[in-house]
Amino acid sequence: MRQAVLNQGRFSIETVPDPTPAPGGAVVRVSACGICGTDYGFFLNHLLPDGAVLGHEIAGEIVALREGGREWREGDRVAVVPLPWCGQCEVCNRGQHNLCQRALGHMVGCSTTPGGLAEFVAVPTSSLRRLPDRLPLRHGAVIEPVAVAMAAVRLGEIRPGTRVGVIGLGPLGLFAGLIARLEGALVLGMDERATRVHCAREFGLGAFEADGLATDRIRDLTLGGPEVVIEASGRPEAIELAGQMARLGGRVVLVASYHTATEIRPVHWLQRGVSLLPSIAYGPADYDAALALVASGRLDVASLVTSVQPLDEVQTVFERFPTQNDEIKLLIAP
Questions:
Q1: What is the pTM of this model?
Q2: % residues pLDDT > 90 (the chain)
Q3: Nearest alpha carbon to residue 121 among 111, 112, 108
Q4: Domains assigned to the chain
């Protein structure tokens, strides 16, 4: 098979033997693999050892099975949950599967476990989720980032009538805003890029270009600030901005990847009673809820997938990632 291998910050397309399923495992022919800010962070900051195969947003068809997967058949259409939760550690036992260190340390495409930027990927059958026939196979690759946004909305305790601010209207911020609106929230977002603001407005969200006045506008329109601010820009300096935007006693949910340090002034958070809630990954219930949401059509996945590129273009896709302002969700089709 062909796969994109990352070495010294560059991808090379290499031909290697096809993977074989482990006991109780399967091999999936990758139809689509999404690219996100986490992948770009690995690429830019050399966070994984040479030889890594990225890609954790995966959908495809089962082509091989080994004993232990009786409920599955070759040809089944599936999405892949990249987190192998152990189900036995302290955090799993108390329902915080997103903090399972085994899962985070062995996450498909985010560790030394090979990911979906390849023609085939081997995974345990416990990581498979069946896709309905009516859902285009490539759209199954969007379920994973929707699950990340779903977990952030849940952590923020967003309910009907909650006033929500979103900083950063890339895929995660947009997904979180759309899910919050489906929960009955009032959502107002901001982004430095006019194209992202326009896109959010096209989806029916309130949105402003971050021109220095956007924070004040959102605070005014929410009568003192949002109860929940979702920071999805990935800019460390935006964390302090999110704390300033939130209303007294509000909550700030961090849902992006941050790779550099920043200054946070604790006295501002203490005096205003604003809580800081880091949201990483998701649990099984979040993923299954995301799958149900996408399958139902309540989230317009067809409009969210704006670019599908072949595996040979992966280096170019990553190099252009920071400037692809007109794109929402980027997929690679190996």
A1: 0.96
A2: 90
A3: 108
A4: 2-130+300-333 (3.90.180.10), 148-278 (3.40.50.720)
